[in-house]
Amino acid sequence: MKSSQKTIYHNEPTIGQEEIEAVAAALSNLELTIGSKVEIFERSFSKYIGINSVSTSSGTSALHMALNAIGVSKDDHVIVPSYTCIAVALPVLYQQARPILVDVKDDFNISVDEIRKNITDRTKAIVVPHMFGYPADMNEIKKLCVDTGIYMIEDCSQSIGAEYHGKKVGTVGDISIFSFYATKLMTSIRGGMVCSKDPQLLDSVKELRYHDQCRLSEDHDMRLKYSYMMSDIEASVGIIQLSKLGDFILRRREISKMYKELLEGYKIEHPPEDSYKKHVFSRYVIKTPFNPVKVIDRMRSKDIFCERMHIPPLHKRSLFNSSLSSTGFAQTDRIINSAVSLPIYPTLDDDQVVYIIDSLNEVLGDFT
Ligand SMILES: Cc1ncc(COP(=O)(O)O)c(C=O)c1O
Predict the structure, then answer these.
(1) How many domains is the chain built from?
(2) What are the distances in angstroms from CA 104 to CA 113, 119, 336?
(3) Structural domain of residue 307, as residue ranges?
(4) Are residues 360 and 257 in the same domain?
(5) CA nearest to 90, candidates 122, 123, 127, 54
(6) Distance CA 365, CA 167 (A)
(7) Contact between residue 53 and residue 45 where contact means Cβ atoms under 8 Å apart
(8) How far is it, in rounded angstroms, from Cα 289 to Cα 347?
(9) Could you tell me if the CB of 60 is within 6 A of ligand 1?
(10) Which tens digits make up the pLDDT trace of 37-87?
(11) Which segments of the chain have a pLDDT < 50?
(12) With a 6 A CB cut-off, is 228 part of the ligand 1 pocket?
């Protein structure tokens, strides 16, 4: 690495002067908690996605309220993939329901066949995360949900702006959730969103997100409520970031193209692609035939941080011992033993990307 080049981190948020000024302005307004900026952010996000939205304190709280709004309760089953962020399965436990973990496909997304094998008369919902920016097989899952009367929740936390047959992710399921955590495609520092075409579900989320929100129900103590609101400070960052999201995605797709073209393909399985799915590359996760820990260590010695994502997988965590599909986790195990996530974010310049590519080609060359 040239002495002028700095350490390349696995992830870095893209924050400009506009976000800094927006936070200062929101603080000066003294509208600190839920105020006018939250409303503007919700309106802008609804316009961007194409359906109505309610903001929340995080992606995890968004999913918790989505499950609650569709009526998931004690002993219900909710199907979730084994290879994903733990925040996809935890809110199912918050509702005293049981997550049923099923295997994924080699594109990192939940397998429709595995879902089908694990549906029972206790299955209430399926949570479908679009992993690393790549849409899951929504038509097939939607059809299965409609045929069996099961709710489909899209988890778009890693895929804001991704498209499936020209439709934005988040608009196909009965309800969808987003995260704006600092490592996501766009951030509000922390924060989330619930979207749905069903106004009743969104009213329910609005009512649940604040324990002092009494306007919507006659009996104020009818439901257990939470403190899951977004603040105006967070929303003011979210508004600016949303206006930059198109450029962020363009740059991520440019970097992905460089990786695809310049990394020596015979040693690497690149992320999936399909003409009817627009990938937004929140992560660029490759599979190699070599030990991922050793590959990451060698890259680290070149001042480049790469990561193994979502380890240990959910089926290896004791919290979910009673949640395992009997049909196994062969694909998840294969991913865990081969996947390496490379740095990809808008502030990486071309020189840095070329340095990552040269370094990885060299490291993988040494392993052969
Ligand atoms: C797929 C997925 N769902 C949910 C979450 C939870 O979001 P948050 O960190 O905003 O609670 C995350 C990320 O953290 C995620 O990657």
Answers:
(1) 2
(2) 9, 15, 12
(3) 245-367
(4) yes
(5) 127
(6) 40
(7) yes
(8) 30
(9) yes
(10) 999 999 999 999 999 999 999 999 999 999 999 999 999 999 999 999 999
(11) 1-3
(12) no
